[in-house]
Amino acid sequence: MNLPDTAATPAGADRTFQVDLRGLVDLLSHHLYSSPRVYLRELLQNAVDALTARHGLEPDAPADAFGIRLYADGSVVRVEDDGVGLTEADVHTFLATIGRSSKRAEGIAEQRGDFIGQFGIGLLSCFLVADEIHVLSRSARTPDARAVEWRGRGDGSYTVRTLPASARPRPGTTVTLTPRADADEWTRPARVHALARHFGSLLRHPVTFDDGTGGAGASVNPEPAPWARTHPTPGARSRALAAYGEEVFGFTPLDTIELDLPAVGLKGIACVLPEAVPAGRRHGHRVHVKGMLLSEQAEEILPEWAFFVRCVVDAESLRPTASRESLYEDDTLAAVREALAERLRAWIARAAASDPDLLGRFLQAHHLAVKSLAVHDDEILRMLLPWLPFETTDGHATLDEFARTHRTVLVTSSVEEFRQVAAIASAAGLGVVNGGYTYDRELVHRLPEIRPEVSVADLDPATLTAHLDPVDRETELAAMAYLALARDALAVFDCDVALRTFQPASAPALLVDSREARHERTRSQLAREQEGGLWGDILGALRQEAPRAQLILNQLNPLVRAAVAIDEPELARTSAEALYGQAAMLSRRPLRPAESSLINRSFLDLLAHALRKDS
Ligand SMILES: Nc1ncnc2c1ncn2[C@@H]1O[C@H](COP(=O)(O)OP(=O)(O)OP(=O)(O)O)[C@@H](O)[C@H]1O
């Protein structure tokens, strides 16, 4: 913290920026840090970095030779470490200069890989809970170093004094805060203990907490990280990892995937979510660096498609941003993301190859996520496409099951088309998949890449009508008058009417009408209405041969057989309208206003006719 240069400065001379520390702390607390509780994370992280530096000085010291001790009794919070310590010069250079860090090499991007900190601002977070930071330190670099005391205050002033070595008999640093009354929530002993466990449970150095009520400090990290523990059997290990996942995330994982990337010193687990999540929603992962919990919301360690897992990882060399809430996007992070994605793919491949039960449960929860993934990822497509469920004319089935009974797989382009044709197509022995849902049509078309013996084609109305048998000449002639009347009645809907025989006999009529055809008709109609105007010309230029809808009546259906024999023209018209209305409703597409009123009218007309007949 540089004090403003208050001496009179001659006109025209260079001046020094002045820093309003209160403004800066306000900025950090409202925009950089998510909560005042991060003060403890920053203190712990500085202690960890100091221990790392101390081990660098004394590489032969055992791993647990140096530790961290926390103390909180309600009136002070203290973090004491056996780290490298600070000399008086260090105190001036690093503690008293905002933005200066002993952990950075040249530029801001060249952090010395061993350390978590790099920005030289973390200590300021203590001002979120206290007005003064008291540091007592003794350097481990020189055996006879004196102790040095630094007091930094929120108003930007500080004092430094050196003390005899006896003021701190061993090297290391003690940071003491006297919390403000309004920070009680974050500095109560129980809270400090909970925060220490939250941030420090995976730290590799011994960490203890003491609440001043007597007795030895309790260990904050009594056990090694869950993945570093040994278990009697692989089953016991996976149960223990699942229990840890549940404790951290609050759900029982469908499976736990162990992560281990020696190149970046990363270990951890990915917990497979037991339930589907909305596609595209990314989850935050818990990222520890050197055991220290830095972020619970890091999204960047996995690619977007991996939204079916949540991870806890501990890495040696990932670099957090200044807020610690996310990770610095560098080559290491890109490599980690790539390697973890590979690990998830391998897990899927293993389940597909040797654990059908697990695969089934996984796909039941996440088939949508997997479909979105398979569209862009050939390997996933190859492994999983046959096992993905689709809506078909045989009910919900995997493509593998479906292709066993249908060598030619037909796929519709909309849900509505599927609804229109499903019953008839399946009665005609055609295998149709509903391609109307996102990704489905695209995916089904890629099936021959994996099952070359299967062919896939789009189902167009012509394919279906080709499977409907024509009626004999005599029947056709007998129905001619009725068909002409029906065509006339339905001309307003640009709908042709034909008579065929098809199964199931219980279906009186089929309305074959694709969305594109309807779209085209609307455009043609608009063009006709707007004839002459600019808009009409544009629409006219776009006009194609408007495909007509087709109402196909089923000669096998008793009702249809009775209808074509009606000799009363009005009733014949009404019956044709009613058949059209029923077929349109069966297709489950939204009805147009003219269709709704046609259904309404034909129903009332038929009712009136029935009542007249009865009276
Ligand atoms: N416990 C400690 N032991 C030794 N040195 C420390 C300790 N705490 C802070 N320092 C010194 O003070 C400097 C500033 O600390 P501060 O926490 O503000 O930033 P940083 O850790 O370097 O970076 P960041 O802002 O990314 O945390 C550190 O670089 C380090 O030199």
From TrEMBL:
Keywords, sorted A to Z: ATP-binding, Chaperone, Nucleotide-binding
Any one GO molecular-function label of the UniProt entry: ATP hydrolysis activity
Disordered, as annotated region: 213-235
Highest taxon of the lineage: Bacteria
Binding site for ATP: 42, 46, 81, 173
InterPro entries with a match to the protein in the record: HATPase_C_sf, Hsp90_fam, Hsp90_N, Ribosomal_Su5_D2-typ_SF
Annotated family: Belongs to the heat shock protein 90 family.
Entries under PANTHER family matching the protein: HEAT SHOCK PROTEIN 90 FAMILY MEMBER
Protein name: Molecular chaperone HtpG
Species: Streptomyces atratus
